[in-house]
Specification:
Helices cover 88% and strands 0% of the residues. The protein is mostly helical. The two termini are 17 Å apart.
Length: 68
């Protein structure tokens, strides 16, 4: 594997985990304020996970190419 591909893969993983953590933090805040229930929080988390699988590698490739 080329170093560029390793960097893109690592950056995509960091972006994906960071994005999911941010959504988790946001939905926990909504639940604490009583704005959302557990089902809504789970739905947002699943939506973020699905969209993140598509967006994180594309964003990582763009960032890695621009910083090259």
């Amino acid at each position: 594997m080329r170093p560029f591909a390793i960097g893109v893969t690592g950056l995509a993983a960091v972006l994906y985990v960071g994005g999911l953590s941010a959504v988790r933090w946001w939905t926990n805040g909504l639940r604490a304020r009583g704005v959302a229930d557990a089902r809504a929080a789970r739905d947002w988390y699943l939506l973020a996970g699905a969209l993140g699988l598509l967006a994180a590698p594309l964003l990582a490739f763009t960032l890695a190419s621009a910083l090259r």
